[in-house]
């Protein structure tokens, strides 16, 4: 099945209605215990560049948790997330409607029943116009936008690189 036909089969479902996202008592959690690189699981979306940066940043959990203006589940299902775009921190507001396929999230998710991975990916997609527009990208752009720090790419295949390092 091609991507367009596959994506047309997705249903948008509130996170509260997706059993695997709820804890044993039927509650949603943005964070369960501590953020960890092993929380992240890629779905059908080709955004491994984005998820790899989440993994790196989650080595120090505060780098992830500080991005969330709303860090608890709420009845409205609305969450505020901070992303630095073009050098300016912006609040990206997302809801908890999740694209689903075969009774579960179609795109990224956490290995446990927490929302932080799904919500960050949704905010990133919203900032860029759609999920489709975040397929394939560059980790340095994500790193810059989630930390506010400048990034630089150093081409390591350049023969003169070692001369300049020494």
Automatic annotation (TrEMBL):
PROSITE patterns per UniProt: CALPAIN_CAT (PS50203), THIOL_PROTEASE_CYS (PS00139)
Annotated ranges, domain Calpain catalytic: 10-166
Hydrolase among keywords: yes
Keyword field contains Signal: no
Entry keyword set: Hydrolase, Protease, Thiol protease
GO molecular function: calcium-dependent cysteine-type endopeptidase activity
The family this protein is said to belong to: Belongs to the peptidase C2 family.
Stated name of the protein: Calpain catalytic domain-containing protein
